[in-house]
Structures are given as structure tokens and as C-alpha cells.
Amino acid sequence: MRPVIRDFFSGFGNLFRKPRTVVYPKEKIIIPEGSRGIPRLKLDLDSLEIICNGCGDCQRVCPENCIKIRKSVDEDGREILDEFYLDLSKCIFCGNCVEFCNLDAIEMTYRHQLAEPDRHAFMLEKLDLIKQADYSLRDFWTK
Amino acid sequence: MMLLFKKVIYLYLILVINLYVCSYLLNRISSRFELKRGYTIGRVGGLGYPVLKLFRYLSKNDRLNIWEILIFFFSFFIWTIIPFSPSLIIIRFENDLIIALLFYLVLLFLILMNASRSRYGFVFKNATKNILMIYTFFMPVIFCIAGIVLINRTLTLKEIVGFQYQYWNIVYQPLGFIVMFTSALLLMKLFTVTKKSTLLLGQDILKEGSGFGRLTVRISYYSTLFFIIVMIIILYLAGWQNLFFINGNIIFAVKFYIIFFILVLLDKATPQLNDFNYLVSINWRFLIPVSAVNFLLTIIFFILRNIYGII
Fold first, then answer.
1. pTM of the predicted model, to two decimals?
2. Predicted complex: ipTM over 0.90
3. In chain B, what residues touch A23 (CB-CB under 8 Å)?
4. Angle between helices B96-116 and B121-152 (to 10 degrees)
5. For B76-120, how does the pLDDT look when each residue is reduced to its tens digit (9 = 90+)?
6. Quick one: which H or E segment has residue B145?
7. Which of B26, B29, B30, B35 to mutate to test the interface with A (most CBs of A within 10 A)?
8. Which sequence spans correspond to the domains of chain B?
């Protein structure tokens, strides 16, 4: 009987408290700091080139095998990144790729709304991953 | 004739407004209880929610059966006997308490018949269990009503309210009130008015009975719930008797919504009762013994006062 009375009064108190849920399309939730959204490829701010050299560490540590990398050699004999594919339908946003990257070339953004009508849209290429820089600010979705 | 017509219009207006308000309150209270916002599709704080719900039912194509038509008429017809105010009685009987209880049982029987024509075995099984359980909760209610009848020595609802001008019956029969209230709460739980449940009669809303027929069944649930609440108010809480300087009709509405509000909150605070053995144990270990003891005490009091003249 005691839990019923306790729940009755706590529920009665809830009627005067602010609801925790939001009306989704109109109001947006404030995302906690450090949340992991879609990864992005960072650019070198001086040369505006991709920092990643295609070493393939992230591909090896990925538990879901959702990263595919193809690298090539440029005229100077340096290894450069040729293609970078990320399958978002497989990605579990574990953040291993960010953690193991020696060059600190990948970063997690705050983009979390990923509904798409076409499943092929989840296959992100190099250019798509560079464009994710727009979502790296936390308060973007709260505006 | 015009007066009768006017009364019918008033009665149905009260019922429709009541259905609207209760549907709205259920949506708001049951969601805010869990710190949720509830449906706000109707805008203006979800005020249009009951109307939208009505249109959602009506938009589905459905073939009515005879039981659903009977339920629809009966769930409104039951209110012709029970008075909301001293003048708002359409059919007058001398023993209207018995007739009202009979109508209530018939309404439950019609709901049972409607569920029994289901093509799905589990719907029939659960519905039969539910209705029979509600019938068993009727046994302690009968004991309580018998106690009230012994005290007031009348079977007319209007006279029972009249006898409570000085002291409400809840003063004489607190145990009876508790039993009636508990049985109303369990009835509400069994009909699962506040939430969707696997025990719900028409829980297969996508499979069958999604249109007007489903709406009639829903109205009949509300009707039975209103019946029990109105009976509690008339029998124990002095019905439409004026309280100090406040009009009796307003007091009646206030009592109705307070009881409804407490019932909804208690319904949300108690766990979902899926176990029939547990329900049976509530009935046999609490409701029936308490109501029987209450009835026996009332009989002893009645004999001592009226036959031997001791008290």
C-alpha cells in the first residue's frame, strides 16, 4: 500500500512540473557535450588539404568494418588519401577511429539526425565527410 | 412533450461534454503523470484531441453489428433513469435504484456479447475474463448498496439524496465507500481506459472493430465508469445537495471530477494488473469480506434501533 501512496503523491507533483519530453520537429533537444555523431575528415587550416594520409589505422580498428580506404602515391612519392568510404548504416559511433588516429585527422561531429529514405545515402564518400564540418558546433541543432 | 424533449437534449449535452472533458483530462493527466507532454496535435494544449480521436474512429471503414448498435443506444439509455439533478429524470420509477443496477448489468452483458463475436480467440478469452471479473466486483457493490438501502429505507435515488441533507452517508458507511471506490478503480483498470493493454477488449484495433463500432464500445466503457462514479456520489456524497451557499448542480460536477481525477491518478500509480489470480484475491480477501462485515454491522444496527428500539 505504501508504494501506491508514494507513487500517487509523486505523480500528483509531476502535474505541476515541467514535462521532460519535447515536441520534436518544433523544439530540439540540447545535445550533451562529447556526444558522438557522424565522423568528419579534418582539413589542414593552412593548406586546406586533408590531414589524413590514408594509413588505414581506422580501417583496422573499426569493429564493424564500415570504413574502406584506398590510398595512392603522388608525384613526390608521398602516400596520399585517394578514397575514403564510410558506411553509416553499419557504423556504431564507437569513436575508435578518432582515438587510434595518429594524425588526429578524424573527429566526431554532433550530427545525430540520420533518417534517410534511401539506404544508399548512408554510404558517405570523402567529400561528404569533409562537408560534415558544418555540424561540428554543438549548439547547431538547438537554434 | 416539449419539456421531455428539452430534458433529453440537456441530458445528452451533459453526457457529450462530460465525455469530451474526461477524454481530454485522461490524455493530459496520464501523460503529465509520467512527465510527458501528451498529444498536442489538436493545438491549444491538446484541446482538439478528443475531436481528432472521434474523427479518427469515424474515418475507418467498419461494418456495424447488432451488439454494437445495442451498446450505443444502451450506453445513453442508462442515463434516463439516473438523476443528475432533482428535475433531470426522464423515466420515473419508484424503485429506480434496482432498475439502474439492472441496466448496468445489461450493458456489461452487451459488451460481453459484442466481444464474444470476435474471430480472434485471445480477444474472446480476455474479454470474457474481464467482464466476468467486473461481474464479481459487482458482488461487494451489492452489499454496500444494501447497507445504504437499510439506512435510508428507500429504493429511490432521489429520496436517498434527500435523506442526506444533514449528514452524508459516507459518515455512516465509511467501509462501504472504500469498497465502492476500490471496485470503481478496479473496473477502470479492467477496462484500461487510461492506457493500451493486452487485456483490452478491442486491443486488436488494427484487425477488427476500428470504426464506429469501436467508438461505441469505447463510449460504453466511459458510460459504465461514469455510472459507478455517479452512484458513489448519489449514495455516499449527498448528490446534488447544496453545500453551504453553492448550488447543488455545481457541487455535483465538482464531486464527479474530483473522484474521476483521483481514480485516474490511482490508476496510474498502481501497476498494471495482468494477473487474474491477484484480482480474485483482492476481491475475496478484501472487498467481499469488508463489504459483508459492513452489511452485517448495518443489519445489527438496524435491528437494534428499529425492532428493539435500543439505540
1. 0.77
2. no
3. 37, 40
4. 170
5. 888 888 888 888 888 888 888 898 889 888 988 888 888 777 777
6. helix B121-152
7. B35
8. 65-306
